[in-house]
Design brief:
276 residues; alpha/beta; Rossmann fold; 7-stranded mixed sheet; 11 strands
Length: 276
């Protein structure tokens, strides 16, 4: 589950008086159980402001994209906003349950967006894009460096030469501060409680999430994320044959600092003359 201080509902809720916790869900799609109410859970997120930020970064660094690929697009909210602003958009996600919601939302908005159920590491799209974005700390869910490298290479295959690649990651500080540990606000219709445990040696965070969806049986799931030092991400991007353009403290054009909770990375696929 994605989080950021400015992204998620207020965490000052009351303790949930819950029944004995059910066994955690374990399947190949960690978002399958939450897809039906994901948008309700994320209702407070300012998605339009996120898209504003994408456009701000593009303008500040001289990119003028028209075709945008939303990697790990989830239920398609950002993709739909981008399409409404005149971009030609494609979306890709490895969760078929989340994509089912995305397709219904796009149809309801009378917007045509192709959504592909693919893993980023195996991206094989016919279209080429001049911007790829990957938001909501999605790459933190990739727990092995070589798999993340494969994902970067998959994105690169989907881009035109000279195209931009903008994505964010939760920082090491966000895991050390256990910012995933939170619960729903008082009287929230959608009730939840999350507890994070960070293994500093392994660089892995395990987040146990308990949900009480309206009209559904309570359940819990366990998500894992990896903390990647910025220097490792820069190295992986270069191995994937990207040029690293800039790093930003989330939602600003300032460089990240020690206490940045989320870091945005901007890279470029080189022009033909620079590509081996």
């Amino acid at each position: 589950m994605h989080r950021a201080k400015a992204d998620m509902p207020n965490d000052s809720g009351q303790e949930i008086n819950r029944a004995p916790s059910p066994a955690p869900v374990s399947d190949d799609d960690p978002f399958s159980r939450i897809a039906p109410f994901y948008d309700q859970l994320m209702a407070s997120i300012p998605y339009s402001e996120w898209v504003d930020y994408i456009e701000k970064v593009m303008a500040a660094r001289g990119f003028k994209p028209t075709r945008v690929l939303d990697v790990a697009c989830g239920t398609g909210t950002v993709a739909i906003i981008l399409a409404q602003r005149g971009y030609c958009v494609g979306g890709v996600d490895c969760s078929s349950a989340m994509l089912e919601v995305a397709r219904k939302k796009a149809a309801s908005a009378n917007i045509e967006i192709p959504f592909y159920c693919q893993n980023a590491a195996q991206l094989k799209l016919k279209e080429k894009f001049d911007l790829a974005v990957c938001l909501y700390d999605s790459f933190n869910y990739i727990l092995e460096e070589e798999e993340l490298l494969a994902a970067f290479r998959g994105v690169r295959r989907s881009l035109q030469q000279g195209a931009a690649f903008l994505f964010d990651l939760n920082s090491l500080h966000s895991f050390q501060a256990e910012l995933f540990t939170q619960k729903s606000p008082p009287n929230a219709e959608m009730r939840y409680e999350w507890k994070s445990r960070f293994d500093a040696v392994a660089g892995l965070a395990e987040i146990e999430m308990y949900f009480e969806p309206p009209g559904m049986e309570p359940f819990r799931i366990v998500h894992c994320q990896r903390a990647y030092p910025a220097e490792d991400i820069i190295s992986l991007l270069r191995r994937a044959r990207f040029e690293v353009v800039d790093l930003f403290d989330a939602y600003t054009l300032l460089p990240p600092g020690r206490f940045s909770e989320r870091i945005f990375y901007l890279a470029r696929k080189p022009e033909a003359s620079k590509t081996p």
